[in-house]
Write a structure and sequence with these properties.
Radius of gyration: 23 Å
CATH superfamily of the largest domain: Glycogen Phosphorylase B
Number of strands: 18
CATH architecture of the largest domain: 3-Layer(aba) Sandwich
Mean pLDDT: 96
CATH topology of the largest domain: Rossmann fold
Number of helices: 19
Low-confidence stretches: none
Largest sheet: 9 strands, mixed
């Protein structure tokens, strides 16, 4: 077995704000049959510590970025974990990144430097019972791990950095550098320095032995000035170690045949049973009952996700006799827009802001189509859930959405390979046309059912992608395992 240390700031089913948690939680199990033994280092948030079983301290620190700390080894949620038990950094309720005021914790630079530092310690052999050949860090919160490994005094593990979303970069004032426990030479344009400050993601992109992102198209997009968010030049210079590997989903968690969150379970051969889930959504969202198409949104409400574009389409959607259920929270202006639309179109638009994982399953299991109008989307998981549940995805043709959905054009429909609808350019008129096109297809029951069945038969598991990660680890480890 190749020993690999995963490093993530959240992990399903213990703590989740987005798709990163789903990936971090699913990947270890998908890798195990492929000869990779992954243990994941995560912060000791209250929910994580409460779930940890068989905890044993394997590292202790009298002082770790402002207080004492321990690393606990144990199991939780079926996962093998190292938990960074540092109460001064992580013993806080609620969102792992935001304070009660909805703003970033002011010491996030210290919290996630500590996570990366400990990853580097484990990667250089500080825990003898688990000496990883590779450290796999996720996003900016873990991106300094490759830097700590590069400057380790002992022989250290190789490193992989996965970019889940290049927009989140972890940029902080230069004044923090002396506290990061990195050598002075790291504070340069060839290291973590970024426009006079410290760039966590930038440092990871410079020092990682391999860089992955979560779809081939996004890997190309981020090497362009339009998609690189300031890092396109750096990423082009490292294109030889940049890999686009599409995410998968945990098909044990996401599957309509056994999902306890549904009002009615079903399979690809029993699609009529979905109707009970549609009725349940209507009740939960206060929508008028009916057999017409029911669209849904399960999303963060942000500019990136194209929610303002959807806002421009709402009145027209209702005028055409369609309905919409929205589950999401985010930017205050967008929340206000959807609240106003729901009040303006009672019975036709329903809106709920509280994050509700079981309800997100019910929506996929009962809505007819899921809208994903993102301006950019590294991979996306929502469209995978839609495929799995026969909830036809309507997506912008960007990033991972372009890679994973086959548009229902005439040729694809004739060949029986279409799985959803794509639109481009990413603007309100194109989205409006896609919504109307979906409604037209829905009025053709045989065609719509073909779309549903083709999607449900798609392989959205981790099998192929996990195999690519296992091959990458093997190459980095020099053929070990």
């Amino acid at each position: 077995m190749i020993p690999v240390l995963g490093v993530a700031s959240e992990i399903y089913p213990l703590i989740k704000t987005g798709g990163l948690a789903d990936v971090a939680g699913a990947l270890p199990g998908a890798l195990k049959p492929l000869g990779v033994g992954m243990r994941t280092l995560v912060p000791g948030y209250p929910a994580v510590r409460a779930a940890l079983q068989g905890a044993e301290p394997v590292l202790t620190y009298d002082e770790l970025f402002g207080g004492s700390a321990r690393v606990l080894a144990g199991k939780a949620g079926g996962l093998d974990l190292f938990v960074l038990d540092a109460p001064h950094l992580f013993d806080r309720p609620g969102n792992p990144y935001l304070g009660p005021d909805g703003k970033d914790w002011p010491d996030n630079w210290r919290r996630f430097a500590a996570l990366s530092f400990v990853a580097g310690e484990i990667g250089r052999g500080a825990v003898p019972v688990f000496a990883p050949a590779v450290v796999h860090a996720h996003d900016w919160q873990a991106a300094l791990a490759p830097a700590y490994l590069r400057f380790a005094w002992a022989q250290a593990a190789r490193s992989v950095l996965t970019i889940h979303n290049l927009a989140f970069q972890g940029n902080f004032p230069g004044a923090i550098f002396p506290e990061l426990r990195l050598p002075r030479e790291a504070n340069s344009i060839e290291g973590v320095e970024y426009y006079g400050g410290v760039g966590y993601l930038k440092g990871g992109l410079k020092y990682a032995d391999a860089i992955t992102t979560v779809s081939p198209t996004y890997a190309e997009e981020i090497c362009s000035p339009g998609g690189g968010m300031g890092f396109d030049g750096l990423l082009r210079s490292r294109r030889d170690v940049l890999h686009g590997i599409v995410n998968g989903v945990d098909i044990e968690v996401w599957g309509p045949a056994a999902d306890a969150n549904l009002a009615s379970k079903y399979t690809v051969t029993r699609l009529k049973a979905r109707a009970a889930n549609k009725r349940a959504i209507e009740q939960r969202f206060g929508l008028d009952a009916g057999e017409g198409i029911l669209f849904a949104v399960v999303s963060r409400l942000t500019w990136q996700k194209g929610m303002d574009l959807l806002g421009e389409c709402l009145d027209g959607l209702v005028a055409e006799g369609m309905r919409l259920a929205i589950l999401g929270s985010g930017e205050a202006a967008l929340e206000g827009m959807f609240h106003a639309a729901a009040n303006r179109h009672r019975g036709r638009i329903g809106f709920q802001t509280a994050f509700d994982e079981p309800l997100s399953h019910l929506i996929q299991g009962g809505a007819d189509a899921i809208l994903v109008p993102s301006r950019f989307e590294p991979c996306g998981l929502t469209q995978f859930y839609g495929l799995r549940y026969g909830c036809v995805p309507v997506v912008a043709r960007v990033g991972g959405l372009a890679d994973t959905i086959i548009d229902a054009n005439d040729a694809a429909l004739s060949a029986g390979v279409a799985t959803g609808l794509q639109f481009f350019p990413v603007d309100a008129p194109s989205l409006d046309r896609a919504i109307k096109r979906a409604a037209d297809l829905y009025r053709q029951p045989a065609t719509w059912q073909m779309l549903q069945k083709r999607g449900m038969k798609s392989d959205v598991s981790w099998d192929k992608s996990a195999a690519r990660y296992a091959d990458l680890y093997r190459q980095l480890a020099g053929g070990r395992g």
